[in-house]
Amino acid sequence: MPEDLFDILEEVLDAASDRRKKRDKKAKKRARRGEYEEPAHQSGGLLGRITSLFQPVPPPEPARPEPSPEAELDAAYRQQLRLLDDVRRSIDEVAEARRRMEERAARNRQRMADFEAQARQHLIDGRDDLARVALERKRLGEAQAGEFERELASLDREHTQLLRAEARLEAKIEAFRTRRDVLHSQRASAEAQARISEAYGGLTEESSDVAYTIRRIETHTRELRSRGAAADQMLDEGLLEGVEDPRTRFDRQLALSEVDADLERLRRQLDDEAGRR
Amino acid sequence: MIVRIIGEGQYRLDDALIEDLNALDERLQEYLEAGDEAHFSALLHQMAQHVRHRGTPLADDELVQSDAILPPGDATLDEVLALLGDEGLIPG
Q: Contact at 8 Å (CB) between B39 and B31?
């Protein structure tokens, strides 16, 4: 986080607070004079632009008498049910991505154990150079284990996010269905028409949110899939040069000294074992 | 005032907080236009926190439109730019 952010926040919020005080003062004066003042509203800034993307424009008129409002509402209802299916499909996909990620993490753990065993054998054979390579690969595997943990945590968050989205959408669809049924039974009621119109706007916004969230999460899981497949293949083939190394330069230098320490540890282990024999 | 955080849900906030939100929104827009990823991400994250802490979550079955919609708190500048250039977000 940029160090100056809290200063910026303080400055921006102080300015907003000053504006609010001035507005309140003016409002009191106007109230004393019996004048009406427009309430403050959300500006047309960045949030305004995003808001307009997620809400129906122009406002729908599903409750107008012609053409059949019932047909329009039924179509909207069916559309939301399809979206609910998409959310459920996406939940399954994230669960599947998590399962694959766990498998990769398990393979990675196995590879690390294999590299350790290889390093040990190379030392027995007097090939310290090859033992070092095996231990470097093991260290890279350890760095990747950290990446797996982060990705698994992120998939867990996305899974929870989708489950919440499913619950919200389900509840909203049900509320919408109730209002639609009321409208069906009281077609002439202006109040029912107004309520269904408002509900339609709320449901459309929720649907846009859910559709965007699904797309964002799917993009992430697709990226994970392709990155994972490429890294697995290269690691399986031992082509470490092409694998994206998640470590910083500092971490890599640290890892080199850790490789030296690993080599020493293995040598001591072998010496101890030889001594016992 | 109702504020939505995309991917998270809607919150009811005191109307008086609109001034804060507008002021932060202006600053956010400036960072977006300047391509200042670090400040943009940090401020967006803080705005989402502000809404969560100062607002009350709406019940799942409430069907109302929001007065303002905030991108996900962890959205990158590129993601928001893509979102602004987006078409057809509203299904159908």
A: yes
CA pair distance A74, A59, nearest whole angstrom: 18
Q: Is residue B22 part of a domain?
A: yes
Among B6, B23, B60, beta carbon nearest to A209: B6
- Express each pLDDT in A116-169 by its tens digit: 999 999 999 999 989 998 998 888 888 888 888 999 999 999 999 999 999 999
A257 to chain B nearest CA, in Å? 33
Please state, as a whole number, how many other Cβ atoms lie within 10 Å of the Cβ of residue A104.
20
Residue type (1 letter), B40: F
The helix/strand/coil state of A245 is coil
What ipTM was estimated for this complex? 0.87
Whole-prediction pTM value? 0.75
Q: Is the pLDDT of residue A17 over 80?
A: no
Domain-embedded: residue B89: no
Write out the DSSP string of A229-257.
HHHHHHHHHT-GGGSPP-S-HHHHHHHHH
Chain A residues in contact with B6 (beta carbon < 8 A): 50, 54, 209, 212-213
- B3 - beta bridge partners? B11, B68
Residue type, A157: R
Half-sphere exposure of B29 (CA within 13 A, CB side): 15
Q: B20 vs chain A: nearest CA distance in angstroms?
A: 5
Question: What are the phi and psi torsion angles at A56 (to 5°)?
Answer: -65, 125
Residue B88 lies in a domain: no
Widest CA span in chain B? 39
Which tens digit of pLDDT belongs to each residue from B18-58?
888 888 999 999 999 899 999 999 999 999 999 999 999 99
φ, ψ (nearest 5 deg) of residue B30: -60, -45
Structure tokens at A23: 């507005």
CB A218 within 8 A of CB A90: yes
Question: How high is the pLDDT of residue B56?
Answer: 96
- Domain containing residue B54: 2-83
Total number of domains constituting chain B: 1
Which A-chain residues 89-128 have CB contacts (< 8 A) with chain B?
none
Under 8 Å between Cβ of A48 and A42: yes
The residues pairing with B4 across neighbouring beta strands, listed in sequence order, are B10, B69
Q: What angle do the packed helices A46-54 and B77-84 form, to 10 degrees?
A: 50
Q: Is residue B91 part of a domain?
A: no
